[in-house]
Structure formats: C-alpha cells, structure tokens
Predict the 3D structure of the following.
Amino acid sequence: MICYDEPLYRPPSEANSLIVQATLGCSHNLCTFCEMYKSKTYTERPIEKIEAEIAEMSENVSIRRVFIADGDAMALPADVLLRILEKLKSCFPKLQRVSIYANPGNLLKKTPEELKQLSDAGMTLLYLGIESGSDIILKKINKGALYVHHLEAITKAMDNGIDVSATIITGLGGKSLWREHIEQSAKLVSEAVPTFLSTLSLMLSPATSDTFTGAFEEGFEPQTDSGMLEEEKLLIELIRPPRNIIFRSNHASNALALRGTLPGDRKKLMDKIDAALRGEISTRPDWMRGL
Ligand code: SF4
C-alpha cells in the first residue's frame, strides 16, 4: 500500500484516479494566496521509489486514470516523466489518461519535442492555475508568471498534443480591481483557448491573509458572494474563443455550480447566474465551502 506524504491534493475531476506522488510540494511555492504546500520543501522523489510504488499497485489492473502529484510535478525532467509513463503503461493495461499539475515555468523550460514525447507516452492532460490574466494582479500575488507566459505555455502544451485544464480565481482582485481582473482573464482565455476552464473562489486562510492583502497598497476589500457571481457572469460574457472550451465551476469553494460549453452555452450559464443573484435558485452556503 502506498503511503502518501500529506497533505495531498488533486483536482476534483481526478477523484477516481490513482495518485502517483512523484514530487513533494511546489517548486514555486510563493503565491501569496496559496498555502497548499507551505509545510513542504520541494523535493523530487527518487525514480526507483516511484517505479516500485507503481509496481506495487499493478495487481489493480482496472486502473484507467492516473494523476501525478504534487503541486507541479511537471517540473521533473522529461526523461524522468517518460520513465514514469513507461512504467504506468506496462503495469496498467487499461490506462487511458495520465494527468499532472504544471505551471508556466515548467512548460516553457521543456522543448516542443519533449512535450510531444510526453503526450505520445500517454500524458494527455495538465492542470494549470492561471488565476488571473491581469499582470497587475499576477505581480501582486507573486505568481511568477505574467499574461504572456501563460499564453505561451498553454499554446505550447496544446500544440504538442497535451490538453490544458485552466483555472481562474474569482475575487482575486477584490472590489477595486475586479473589472481589470475579469477583462484580462477573459482576454487571456479567449487567446489561449484551453480545453477546459474552471473557476474557484478566493478563500484566504489566517496563514495567507496578511501577505496577500499586504500587496494591495490601496487596501484590499474582499468581494461579496454576489460580487463573485457578477465576476463569473462577466467572465462568461467576455470569453470569445475561436473553438469550444468546456466550462465548469464545480469546485468546493464556489457558491454556484455551473457547467456548459463556451461559447454555445453562454446565455444559459449567464441566465443561471442571474437566477442565483435574484435568489431564485439556492447557492452553497459559506460554511459548506472550502478548498
Ligand atoms: S504555483 Fe500553484 S501550488 Fe505553487 S504556490 Fe502557486 S498556486 Fe500554490
């Protein structure tokens, strides 16, 4: 049985996947709103141990999906990732999809040929937190990447056969920068055209609150729930992709679950948000939400 190094995170859509922990923590680990891996030092686990753990699970031949953790396992060198993919393929005959968290820096350091090799070996989906398309906000939150880096990284992954599931965080600009946040995020999503787009709602913990708000010299006034729904509505309205984007807001931090395809379901999604704003459909109360 695999013993994971906690805390262990995975995207909501990987709930039924086998998790292979190839790295510990996040190689960036500096985003001011994020405390996921603050208790860990970024570490690349020995490939022999990872392979042994995969072999241990190999009696479970029904495994179809694998998620490679932790926070940005795409930071691993391409040859190590290829060894992991090779081992997975040999142990799980029904394997259909291998996915991973990545940040723009990891992707921009890899060559197009390496990304194509990873895709051909079975890594067909990566999760990337854009958080915001606004450079003003990306600098404040210490994301370590700007608009142009997200655009280049997503394009590079998709051009080489890897689907991208991207996230935007509503509320990240507070009340003063919300329009800048949403307009620039919609512009980036429309230009980069990830395969999937999800939204999360900003939830600060006591451990992150002071550092995060301290970067807003003008003061940070948090969005209300209805303000975040207005942000989501404007985001959906402004995204104009040249091909379909599958949109989900099913994360546990969100007040309202939404799913559809953009641009086709734009009106349906906006109507549902309007109905929630008018109180005609119920939203998830604050105490039921979390990260
Ligand atoms: S890159 Fe992701 S996991 Fe790492 S600190 Fe930023 S938000 Fe957290």
